[in-house]
Each structure stands twice: as structure tokens, then as C-alpha cells.
Specification:
Structural class: mainly beta
Number of strands: 10
Order of helices and strands: EEEEEEEEEHEH
Helix content: 10-25%
Largest sheet: 10 strands, antiparallel
Distance between the termini: 38 Å
Number of helices: 2
């Protein structure tokens, strides 16, 4: 196992009013800190999902673990073959390589702090998702950048059983 040594010298401070916001209800993403600003230590964003909205479809990261901390509400999270219901104050950490996905629980809202470590440049990935949502690029275009963002999409029968 290798040790990641972050390479930055000053505190990273992101004021809420200054965070870039991607999307709008039912899915809003606040870009907080990208890998480049934390010397590779982590990437983090805050995702707000309204009324059972989907967050991310099943995928995995080859190099990073992903942490989900429930700031508020109730979410469903896939970790491997297990679907967990998480509520305010709950923490779920998915290891590298494990299939995972997340969404607000049906009829519920969810406010989630997400941290990827070690960090991967993710801001442009979320901007790409926004371009897809607004019809500027086709959804298949994500397949072309999976390796760049260490995000590999896959199918999950466990997820499909709870999120048809």
C-alpha cells in the first residue's frame, strides 16, 4: 500500500457563497475543493437531492475511496452488492474498486457531503454532467472520459432492485 503525501502549504477555505453550483433542483452540486487545490489529498462536493432524486448511477473508482456523510435527509447508497439507507449524521465509506451509487430515498430529500480520496480532478467531470443534462453533449460522451476521471460505469442488479 502506498502513502499519498498531499502537496499543499496553506489551508483550503471555500466560502459557501463562492462555491460553484452545478445544476438545479432536484439535483444540485456545490463544488467545494478539487484535487489540485488540496495537493491530491481529496476532492469534495456537496450534493443536494430533492424528492427521491437520483445522484449517481452505479460506478466505481479504481484509485479512490469515496466517503458519503449525510448532512441531512435520507439517502440510499449502493456499496458493493449492499444497498444501505443512510440518515442525517450517518457515514458510509466505499473502498476503491467497489461498485457504488447514491440517490435520495423515495419521496425524501438528501444533503450529502462527498469526499473522494486520494483526490481526482472532478470539477470538470461535474461540468460535463451538466452539459449532458442540458442536452449540449450526448450521455455516451461520459464513456470517453471514464479513465480521465477514474469513474467507470457498470450495472448493478442490487441497485436496479431498489431504483427501477
Amino acid at each position: 500500500m502506498s502513502l499519498i503525501t498531499p502537496d499543499f502549504n496553506e489551508a483550503v477555505i471555500v466560502r459557501s457563497a463562492e462555491a460553484e453550483v452545478i445544476g438545479r433542483a432536484p439535483t444540485t452540486i456545490r463544488l467545494l475543493a478539487d484535487s489540485s487545490s488540496t495537493g491530491g489529498a481529496l476532492s469534495t462536493q456537496r450534493v443536494t437531492l430533492v424528492d427521491g432524486a437520483d445522484g449517481a448511477k452505479p460506478h466505481s473508482h479504481g484509485r479512490s475511496a469515496e466517503l458519503f456523510y449525510m448532512l441531512d435527509g435520507t439517502a440510499q447508497l449502493l456499496s458493493g452488492d449492499q444497498v444501505v439507507t443512510a440518515e442525517r449524521g450517518d457515514l458510509v465509506v466505499v473502498p476503491p474498486g467497489a461498485p457504488h451509487a447514491f440517490a435520495a430515498a423515495p419521496g425524501e430529500n438528501a444533503d450529502i457531503l462527498i469526499v473522494l480520496t486520494p483526490g481526482v480532478e472532478r470539477f470538470e467531470y461535474f461540468r460535463h454532467l451538466e452539459r449532458i443534462a442540458y442536452g449540449k453533449v450526448p450521455p455516451e460522451s461520459l464513456l470517453e472520459v471514464q479513465e480521465l476521471y477514474d469513474t467507470y460505469f457498470l450495472s448493478s442488479p442490487a441497485w436496479n432492485d431498489v431504483r427501477p
